[in-house]
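#onboarding

Welcome to the new folks! Below is a worked example of what a typical request in this channel looks like: someone posts a single protein sequence, and someone else replies with the predicted structure as tokens. Don't worry about understanding the tokens yet, we'll cover that in week two.

Example request:
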Amino acid sequence: MTYTEKLTLPAMFQHSVKTYKDKTSIVFAGEKNYTYREMGEEVELLAEMLLELGVSKGDKVAILSTNMPNWGKVFFAISMVGAVAVPILPDFHTREIHTIIEHSESKILFVSEGLYHSLGEETSQLLKGMVLIENYAIIPQATPADHLKILETSLPVKVEKYSPTEVEEDDLASIIYTSGTTGNSKGVMLSHKNLTWTARQSRTLQKIDSNDRFLSILPLSHTLENTVGFLLAIMYGASVHYLRKPPVASVLMPAFQKVKPTVMLSVPLIIEKVYRSRVLPTFQKNALMRFLSTFTPTRIVLHKVAAKKLLKTFGGKIHFFGIGGSKLDSTVERFLYEGGFPYAIGYGLTETAPLLAGAVGKTRTIGSTGIAMEGVSLRIADPDPKTGEGEIQAKGENVMQGYYKAPDITAEVFTEDGWFRTGDRGVFDKNGRLHIKGRIKTMIVGASGENIYPEEIESVINKMRFVLESLVVEKKGKLVAMIHLNREEIEEQFQHLKLEAKQFIALKSEEILNEIHKKVNQEVNKFSRISQVVLQPMPFERTPTKKIKRFLYA
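Example response:
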């Protein structure tokens, strides 16, 4: 059943509460059931509380919290009173949090106990009120962190005078601050229609119904999780299950078996780590396995066996494993594709709420982000006559209203005829499927004017044995590859050598890097060959959405 109601968050929420009232809504994994009817009642109480706190239509209310059911309830309550939600990524620094609250003019902040320490005294003074999200207790100014547990709820016992505020489709619903790799965070203004339309259209790529169980591992303040992992689920009566602790293996494994999720969303980093730590070692453990994995027929058989085991590890019921946020390593995708794992690739930006295109089922091709989502128009601007590559530009009801308090920057990202400039360079193949080449800002122009995409070289490097991650930059006109190696795998592979750890790692790292340098330059085109390979001893610093902060290493 396709959602046909008014495209606002309150209308969507009330429709779901009425339609799916006895279904499981949003819960902690493996814990007490909580129905849509119960959620509807609690959201009304929260909306009443917001009114009592002086929140009115158009006011900004920030959320700084880890994932939990109360996050979603607060989000809907904010929309019910016509206010604007300002989700803040949990990994943002104290300084960034202060800037966001100040810039957005947030009036009230809902904060989780574990992130309360991220607030500086100056930040607290900007707010007219703070609420502990775990139990909705009002937090008095200058409350010590160890006193939070003794605060009692401020939630009304029952609704006395609340009635939903009239909200229109084009009203501002949320301001989401990006965590771009360029180091500049901007407030993306998303309307009620932007969010609910995208949630509805997402179902044209993958059918979702009230029998689906989502397991949430990405931050709710990340647009992908917010729209596709939360709003889409609520719109069609599915249940969403949250973790009380960070999604490390010891937490995820029991959760998979308790929830047996049918739907999950991930960023490439997560599934790439799973591949390199759990799957790849089985293909590299001895000479025979390495030999068998070099031939396509036997490799596919090995991939099918490994993918089946992986699916069982995830609970055995997943039929949609969505991956988005950045480009997936081609070797990892080949394993998922050949193994028959039910993965999908999504492409979009915070500015497009976020989905623009998706590769699901038969529309998947290794290296492609698939076809435009129904209702979205995509074009390649000023395509290169030889390659067909150009900037990807988009139109659709999901495109943002603009950047908050930044009309000049907003004007820059729209063409004269109203298309949104994604800043990504791409090309369509003969089947109309989109292939992302890289960010225009990271593209390097070669000595003879060639377009060099660091991301493409990195994908070649990252499939090399012993590599965890890499970054290709230009220094003094030459391409330099910074490579972070898997120290544990190196030590395990060469443990028969009786050397001290430091001496051992230094010797083997240099040898491995030299071998990688040679192999990479054999695989890439002439103008993409790297001049130097250097060891990156520590993991690269990443944004809260797990993208490498390239600007720190340029």
